[in-house]
Amino acid sequence: MQPTREQKLWMYENMLVSRFFEETIEKIYLEGKTPAFNMAAGPIPGEMHLSNGQEPCAVGVCAHLKATDIVTATHRPHHIAIAKGVDLKKMAAEIFGKTTGLSGGRGGHMHIFDANVNFSCSGIIAQGMGPAIGAALSRKMQKRDGVAVAFLGEGAANQGAFHETLNLASLWKLPVVFVIEDNAWGISVSKLDSTSVPRNDIRAQAYGMPGVFIPNNDTLAIFEAAGEAIARARKGDGPTLIEIETYRLAGHFMGDAEGYRPKGEVEGLRTKDPILVLKKNLLEKEKMKEGDLVKIETTARQCVDEAISFARESAYPAPEEAMIGVFV
Amino acid sequence: MQPTREQKLWMYENMLVSRFFEETIEKIYLEGKTPAFNMAAGPIPGEMHLSNGQEPCAVGVCAHLKATDIVTATHRPHHIAIAKGVDLKKMAAEIFGKTTGLSGGRGGHMHIFDANVNFSCSGIIAQGMGPAIGAALSRKMQKRDGVAVAFLGEGAANQGAFHETLNLASLWKLPVVFVIEDNAWGISVSKLDSTSVPRNDIRAQAYGMPGVFIPNNDTLAIFEAAGEAIARARKGDGPTLIEIETYRLAGHFMGDAEGYRPKGEVEGLRTKDPILVLKKNLLEKEKMKEGDLVKIETTARQCVDEAISFARESAYPAPEEAMIGVFV
Amino acid sequence: MTTQANERRLTIARAMAEAISQEMRTDERVFVMGEDIAQLGGVFGNTRGLLDEFGKERIRDTPISETAFIGAAVGAASDGMRPVVELMFVDFFGVCMDAIYNLMAKNTYFSGGKVTVPMVLMTSTGGGYSDAGQHSQCLYGTFAHLPGMKVIVPSNAYDAKGLMTSAIRDDNPVVYMFHKGLQGMGWLGTEKGAIVNVPEEAYEIPLGKAATVRTGTDVTIVGVAMGVHQGLKAADELAKRGVSAEVIDLRTLVPLDRDHICESVRKTGRLIVVDEDYNSYGVSGEIIASVVERDISSLKAPPQRVAYPDIPIPFSRPMEQWALPSAEKIVSAYDRMVKH
Amino acid sequence: MTTQANERRLTIARAMAEAISQEMRTDERVFVMGEDIAQLGGVFGNTRGLLDEFGKERIRDTPISETAFIGAAVGAASDGMRPVVELMFVDFFGVCMDAIYNLMAKNTYFSGGKVTVPMVLMTSTGGGYSDAGQHSQCLYGTFAHLPGMKVIVPSNAYDAKGLMTSAIRDDNPVVYMFHKGLQGMGWLGTEKGAIVNVPEEAYEIPLGKAATVRTGTDVTIVGVAMGVHQGLKAADELAKRGVSAEVIDLRTLVPLDRDHICESVRKTGRLIVVDEDYNSYGVSGEIIASVVERDISSLKAPPQRVAYPDIPIPFSRPMEQWALPSAEKIVSAYDRMVKH
Ligand SMILES: Cc1ncc(C[n+]2csc(CCOP(=O)(O)OP(=O)(O)O)c2C)c(N)n1
Ligand SMILES: Cc1ncc(C[n+]2csc(CCOP(=O)(O)OP(=O)(O)O)c2C)c(N)n1
Ligand SMILES: [Mg+2]
Ligand SMILES: [Mg+2]
Description:
Chain A contains 11 helices and 8 strands. Chain A is an alpha/beta fold. In chain A, the strands form 2 sheets. In chain A, strands 2-1-3-4-8-7 form a 6-stranded parallel beta sheet, with helices on both faces. Chain A has a two-stranded antiparallel ribbon with strand order 5-6. Chain C has helices at 12-26, 50-58, 66-77, 97-104, 107-110, 140-144, 157-169, 226-240, 258-268, 283-294, 317-323, 327-339; strands spanning 9-10, 30-34, 59-61, 82-89, 120-125, 150-152, 174-179, 196-197, 211-214, 219-223, 245-249, 252-254, 271-278, 304-308. A 7-stranded mixed beta sheet of chain C has the order 3-2-4-5-7-6-12, with helices on both faces. Chain C is globular. The chains are: A alpha/beta, C alpha/beta. Chains in contact: A-B, A-C, A-D, B-C, B-D, C-D. The interface between A and C is large, with 42 and 42 residues.
C-alpha cells in the first residue's frame, strides 16, 4: 500500500535529517585534514562512508519498523540508523569518539550500537546478516513479536555469508527481510564486474523465497515493497529478499578521488536526488505548502545542529577507559 | 550423446574397481577394531568415508576427462580418484599411511593428491571449489587446454564457498563444471533439513549458468549431461552446475550406526545398485556375454588385490619424516 | 577431585551433556545449534539425549553453514537467548572465524558493554587417532590470542561439567574446547583419567582459576586437556627416580591464571609446558614469557616446552605419534633441564 | 640501508608495486588478484600502475569473495601460475582463513611436497589512525602460529622490495603483511623512516634473516614493522642518557631468526620486544620464550614486552593512542628493567 501523507512527511523529514547530518559531518571531517588529507587528523578521524543518495532505502524500510524490531546495517550506516530512531546526539558523539557516545567512543562510525532501538552495524561485508537471522530466530523461539531487517550492499551479495544466511532464513522460515542497497559500486568495482547476474533479486529463487527489485531509487515503491515483505515476515510467512537500485552520490569513503567513476555519472544522479523527488510529490500530490516543508527543513536542521554541538562539546574518554568493556 | 560400448565398458570396469577396492578397504579397516571399535587401531586408522553407490557420478563425469584436466574431490574421494586415473597402488599405500603412498603417508584417505592426473581432495566441506576455479583460471590465462571439475556433496551446497566460487566462475566464464553428488545426507542431516530448495540445480540461475539435474543415479544420463557440460567448458562457453541424485549405501563413515536413517532406506537403494543396472544394460542392450563381464570383474579384482598387497607390504615412513615437506 | 564411595563416574561427553540439559531445564533461553547435534547427539556425544528431552525447537541441527549459524547465535544471544553452538572440529574455524572473533568476541566492546553476547561455542580438538591435518588440531593459541572471548579447555569430567555450567551462565562469549581423546567415546580411545566422579547437581567452576592436580617441589609441569594427563604420567615416572613434580591444569586459557603458575615455579624453580598446539607463537611461549617477565630469578634452569612441532599434522601413525607430546618427552625435557 | 648521493627514495607502497611489476615483466606466470587492485591501484597503493602496464587479464579486480579468489589462487599456483593476491585488511582473515591456513599452507605437505603452492598473500595491518576494531589489527601472531606459510613483515621500502621479490620467487606460500602506517600514503600519515633509497634493479632479501638496524651494548629491542621505528626512536632517547640500545628488525616472523636475537641478547643481557599485535599468546611471548629456553643466564633482567593490550582496538583517538606501543613505552620498559 501507498504511504499516507503522514508517512510521506516522516520519510521526508528523516531523509532531510540524514542528508543534513552527513553534510555537516562532511564539513567537520575535513577540519584538520587540509591541505594534506590525513585520515588520522581532525575532530573526526578514521574512515567516513557517507550515504547521501541512499536515504530512500532507509526510510522506505524503517517506516514499517517499531523500536522493538531489529536492524543490522553496514559500514555505511548513518541513514539507516537515523531512520531506525537511533539517538542522534549519542550517535554523533560516538562518531566524534566522545565519552557521551553510544559506546563511549569505542566503536565509532562503523560500529553504531543502540540497544534501545535494536540497531547495530559493523565494518565487515555481510557480517550483519548472521546476527539478523539470529535475532529473528530468537523472536520466533520466544514467540515475541519482531522482524529483523539486514541491510547490505550489492557487493556484499557475493560474500559467502549471503548464501548461508538466506538459506537458513528460508529453511527455518524466520521473520527477516534482506535489503540490498545496490549503489552500483563496491568501492571501485562495479556491479557488472562483481556479479554474475544483472539483479540480485533473481537469487531469491535459490532459497525458495520471494525476490523483489525496485528501480530508480523510488522512495514510495520501496515503502510499498518493504511494507509487504515486513508484514509477510510478521505474519510468520518467512523471509524476503529486496534489491533496491539506489545512488551513491559521494565517494566510497571521504578522500576517495573516484577516478574509476564514469564522467558525469554523479552529476546525472544528482539531478535525480530522491529528496527533491519526494518533495515534488509532497507539493504536487499532497498539496503541501512550501512553507510547511520549510518548517520541516528547519526542525531537521535544528536536531542535526543540536546533535553536532552535543558531540562537539562532549569530553573525550579517559585513555585508560580503553580497558573497560571487553567483558561484562 | 550416449556412451559407446567401449565407454560403457570403461565405466563398468571403473565402477567395479571402485566397489571392490572399497569392499576390501572396509574389511581391512575393521582389522584390529573389533570387538571394541577404536578408530585409532588397525592397519587403516582414522576416518573412513566409503563411496559405494556413488560410482556413477565418478565414472559418468571422468569418462570425458583427460589426465591433464583437473578434478577436486571431497572427503569421500575413492570412486572419483579411481575414475580420474589416480595410481591405485600409491593411493592404497597412502590410505595405509605407508612411505610408498602418494604423499608418503602425510595425507591419508582424505588428502589424496596425484599431480600426474591433476587430482586432489580435502577434508573441509566445499574446500575444493576454490582450487578448481583457480586451476580453470590458470588454463584460461595460459591458453592451455583443460577443464576443471569440482565434486561436492549436497550438504556442501549450503556452504559459503559454493556461492562465491559459482559467482566468480560464471563472471569470468571459466572452464569448470560443478558436480553435486546428492546422496540425500550430510552425516545425519537430511537434505530436507539443510536445503531451502528441493534441488540445487535451481541455484545455477543465481549465477546465470546452466543447471542440470539427474535423477535415479543414472550412469548413462550422467555421462550424457557431463559430456555436454565439459564440452561447453572446453569450448570456452563457461561453467555448468550439475546435481546428481545418487545413493549412499554405507554410513557417513565407518562406525556410523545410522540410527537417523529411515528403516529400509538402504535396503531399498541396494536393489537399485547402479553397477547391476549398468551390467543389465551391457548384457541386454550391448549383447555382451556373461563371460566377457566376468573377465572384466576378474581384472578389476586383480588390480585391487595388487594395489592392496602393495600397500600392505610397503614400509611405514620413519617417524622423523614428519618434519619433511612443510616447505619445498 | 577426591572420588568417594558409590561415586558416579562420567565421561566428559556425558558431563557436558548433563550440564547443558540442567541449564536448559532451569533456563528456557538456553538452546543448542550445530551440525549433527540433534538426532545424532553430536559426533562426539556431548549433546546426546538432549533432542529427546527438549525437542527440535531447542535442539537444532543446522546446514553446513558455520558462518550463518554462529553469526545467528550472536544475534540470538544479544536478543535475550543463551545459545550453545557447536563447531564440530576446531579445524573448521577458518570458514567462520569472522563470526567468532570479529562479531561474537567484539560486539560487547563495540557497544561499550551495552550489548552482551552470552553464548558458548563448543568445539572439538586434538589428534592421536590418525585423522590427519584438517581434523586433529588444537589451535588453543589461535583462540586465546584474540581478545573478547573466554577460552575453556577441560581435562576431566568433573571440570567439564562445572566449567560448562559456568560458561552457559556467563554473560560473555565463551569458547569451550574439548579434546576428542578425552571424550570417553570408545571409538576415539579413552583416557581413563578423564572419567571421574561427577556430582548429580549443577555446580560451577570459576573461569580463570587453574588447579594444582599434583603437588611437588622439584619441577612445575603446566598443561591443559591431554597435556595434564601426560604431565601426571610423567610425574609418576619422575617420582620413581625421586623427583617430585607439581602438575598444574590451567583449565582456562582466557582468563589465564598467571599467579597460580608463578607461585608454583617460585617454589620448584623449574618449568615445563606441555601443549598439543603448535610450538611457535602459541600457548607454550606465552606461559614461559608470563613467568620470566615477572621474576626471572625464580628459574633455576631454562624452561622447556613439549609442544607440537610447527608442521601440519601427518596422517600416518608413526609420524603422528612421534610428533605428539607424551609423558616420555616430558621426562626427557626434565633431564635436559637438570643436565643443564 | 646506507643512503647514497642521488638516491631514489621510495615509499613501501611504491617499492611493493615495483617489485611486483619487475617480476611480472620477467615471469608471465605472475598475476595479481584482489579487491580494488586494478583501476584503483589498491586501497593502499601497492598495485598502482600495474593495470596500465599489464592489463585486465593479469591484474584482476575480484568480487568481495575472499574465500573464492584466495582458494582460486591456490588452485592456479598449483597449476603453474604464481598469483599475488591481496586481502585488503588482515582483519578480514576471518571470512577466508580456511583457504589460507588449511589449503594454501598445507597442500604442499599433504601432497608430500609434490604439489607446490607458489603464491603471495599481501595484506595490510596496523592502526593508529582511528579505524577501530575491525580495520586496525596486526594479527602477526595469528598467522605466524600456523604452520606451512612464511610470514613477512617489512619495516622500510628497501626491505619491502627485496622481500616481495623473494616472496614471488619462493616456491612456498608467503604471507606479506604490510603496515598501513608505513605505506607512505599521505592520507595514512607517513613514517619518514620507512621511505628509503631503493635500487632500480630487482634484488632479493632472504626470508628468515633478521637485520640489526642499530647496534648497541646495553639492551636489545626486537620488533617488526612500526615497532622497529619506535625502537629506533627509543634508542635515540636512551642514547641521550648514555644507554646504548641495539635494535633488531625481524623482517620475517616465519622463518624466525632466533640465532640473531639470542646472539644480541647474549651481548646486551636485556630484551625488550615491541609488538603492535595483541599481548598474549602471540609474537612477544614467542620471542621471549625463544631466548630464555636457549640460555636463561644470558638475561640480566626480566625481559619486557611493549605490546597491544588484550582488548579490541578502540576507535576514539585518546584511547587508541594510549593503547598503542610507542617509543616512550619502550623507554619506560627499559627503566622498569634496570630498576629491577
Ligand atoms: C569481508 C570484507 N571484505 C572487504 C571489505 C572492504 N570493503 C569495505 S566496503 C567495501 C565495498 C562494499 O560494497 P557494497 O557491499 O556494495 O557496499 P557499499 O560500500 O557500496 O555501500 C569493501 C570491499 C570488508 N570490509 N569486508
Ligand atoms: C566446513 C566443514 N564443516 C563441517 C564438516 C564436517 N563434515 C564432514 S563430512 C560432512 C557432511 C558432508 O555432507 P555432503 O556435503 O552431502 O557430503 P557427503 O558426506 O554426503 O558425501 C560434514 C558436516 C567439514 N568437514 N567441514
Ligand atoms: Mg555498493
Ligand atoms: Mg551428502
